[in-house]
């Protein structure tokens, strides 16, 4: 995270982080699906599913930022909901903004399952 704030803290690693590398939504789904979120007084399993297939980021720094957002959503779901499992569902936005191009955004739904 510091490499994202201070540009010259580690020039070699920053160059690698900024290099073009496609990251698919499957990387996020595979990471979070069946993850056990360990809270102080309970353990909350996470179920992740995506109806979107394809790439979501093209640099490691972007991928880290998206993962932090997902972590925050899942953390809030685990802390504030009353059921036993957090479910993360990712759906593509169906509006085609640029003809012939993939949607520019995804819809993320986070809820607790019974």
Model description:
With about 110 residues, the protein is of the alpha+beta class. About 35% of the residues lie in helices and about 30% in strands. It has helices at about 1-5, 10-20, 25-30, 60-80, and strands at about 25, 35-40, 45-50, 55, 85-90, 105-114. The model has no long low-confidence stretch (mean pLDDT about 75).
Task: Give the arrangement of secondary structure elements.
Elements: H1 2-5, H2 11-18, E1 23-24, H3 25-32, E2 36-38, E3 43-50, E4 55-57, H4 60-80, E5 85-92, E6 106-113
Parallel strand pairs: 3-5
Antiparallel strand pairs: 1-4, 2-3, 5-6
List keywords for this structure.
114 residues; alpha+beta; 4-stranded mixed beta sheet; two-stranded antiparallel sheet; 4 helices; 36% helix; globular
- Poorly predicted ranges (pLDDT <50, ≥5 residues)? none
Spatial separation of the terminal alpha carbons: 35 Å
Structural class: alpha+beta
Largest sheet: 4 strands, mixed
Please tell me how large the radius of gyration is. Answer: 16 Å
How many helical stretches? 4
Which band does the percent of strand residues land in?
25-35%
**Mean pLDDT, rounded to whole units?**
75
| Percent of residues in helices | 25-40%
Biggest sheet strand order reads 2-3-5-6
Quick summary:
The chain has 114 residues and is of the alpha+beta class.
